[in-house]
Amino acid sequence: MMIGPELTNGAKRIGYARVSTKDQKLDIQINALSAVGCDQIFSDHGVSGSRFRRPGLDDALKALEPGDMLVVYKLCRLGRSVNHLAELLKRFRNDDIHFQALSEGISTTTIGGKLIYHIFASVAEFQRDLIRENTVLGIEAARQRGKQIGRPCKLNSSDIAKAIELSISQGLSVSQIAALHNVSYSTMRRSLMRSGLAELV
Question: At residue 149, does pLDDT exceed 50?
Fold first, then answer.
C-alpha cells in the first residue's frame, strides 16, 4: 500500500470509505486512510455503490478545494461504474483535485498517475459515443419496421440517447431523467420500452 504523497500549500487529504451492507465493517478502510494522514474521513455505511445518492461521498466532494486530494482504499469504493468513475476523475482534473487509490497504487500527483485521468476520460467518451450511435440506429430501425401507433413521441432519438447516457454515467433513475426532460415518468418509461431498453425501467 502506498504512503500518502506530499501536498503543498496546506492542501488537505480527504478520505472516503464505503461498505455496501450494514453487516460489513469500515474499520480496514478507515485505518488505511488514517495511516496515510487523511485530515478528514467521510463514509457511507450500508450504501450500495449503485445508489445515486451517497451522503458521505457528497460531503467528501463538498469538502474538497483546489490542491486537495481525495483518497480511497480501493477504486471500487468510489465509482458506481466505469463511466461514473470517469466523470468524477474528469471533475477532479478540472477542479485541480488530486486522487489516490491505495490498493491499486494510483496517485495523480505522479506522472504515471496523471495518465489515469486520460485513460478513464477516453473510455467514458468511447462508451458515450457507442451508446448514442447504437440508440439512434436502434430507434430508426424500429421506425422502419412499422408505423408508430398512438400519440406522437415527446422524446426524439437524441433525447433517448441522452437519457441512457445519464443512466449509465451518473446512475440516474428513470424518474430523475424524466424530470430533467420535463416529461412524466410514464412518458420516459414508454420511450425507453419502445426503444428496446426495458432493462433501464
Answer: no
